[in-house]
Amino acid sequence: FFFFEKSFAQVSAVAQIYSGYGMTAYNMKGYKPCGFAPIGIRGAIGSNGIQIGADFWTSIKDPSFKLSDSTGNFLSTEKINDTYIGGMLRFNAGDDPRDFAIILRAGCGVYLSKKSIAYSDYYKGIYPNISDKIDKFKNSIGYNGAIGFSLPIRRTNIHFTLEGQFNYNPRKYNNTINFHTTWDIQAGIAYNFFNKYMI
Question: Could you tell me if 86 and 108 are in contact, meaning their C-beta atoms sit under 8 angstroms apart?
């Protein structure tokens, strides 16, 4: 890997905005893979290609699940809204913040999540006193890992980024641990600061 032989920027920082599209991979019965869209910001600072920072995102399109009973009667529509706040370790495999580079990231943080439930007319016919509701999940600790690239726009400090990310969230709900794992593809714009180099 030739880029490991080059000298990294001695001090560098990055600020990034991003959005994308992903799919759920829950281990819960009836919750089939469903699309969602995150939007977020992240920033990091470090030296010699290794940066530490913070990451924040929320979903602007929530995954929506239609649940039915064993005979196929439609019961409810459930939407799960996630907001994530965490830290990250970012590795920029390039010797100049203005160059193309492979990006590796790993993070850990807190999920602040809620579930909205809209009951069907069929279900309300059985239980006429029931109303649509919003349930809050207990805050959970989740982890993520990502790989992608950072491409300079006309050799400036502004980069186009594209990354694939896997999110692992062991969430407790109704006294049961459920694995609300997801994956997503993120496209973004990043700005690199502090072009100071090792001699």
Answer: yes
